[in-house]
Hints:
This protein is an alpha/beta fold. The chain has two domains: 1-52, no CATH class; 54-150, GMP Synthetase, Chain A, domain 3 (2-Layer Sandwich). Helices cover 25% and strands 31% of the residues.
Amino acid sequence: MEKHVYNVDVTWTQDRKGIMCSPELNNAETQETNCLEVATPPEFPNGMPHIWSPEHLFTAAVSSCLMTTFLAISGYSKLEFISFKCPSKGILEKVDGKFVMSEIQLFPEVVIADEKQRDRAERIIEKSEKACLISNSITSKVTLKSTIIIQN
């Protein structure tokens, strides 16, 4: 596979806040942009509540990568499922005098209709975490606690 490049432009707007956009996500037909406000989280001096922070985006990158990898593997494996969701937690702490995202905790929940598919669904979740390119690109510990729900 050839290299892929993903462009992101971040521009400071005011205080501890800016806007993040990607030219690849703009819709040329409607002239809409797909930008996000980003800011220092409120736990830090002059941080701002209710705005996406780098810490949230880091955690979201791991969680959303698990989902998209799960979708690819389950599709290839022909696993039929009703729903997928993945609450997650990013743990920020000071290690050796530096702030680091030391751990990302993932809590994927997959709803299936057939009890006989429970073990298979669990294996696909685990395989998805191991294949996730974001998880494979970071030094943070990634922990997984999955739940399989049977819905008839």
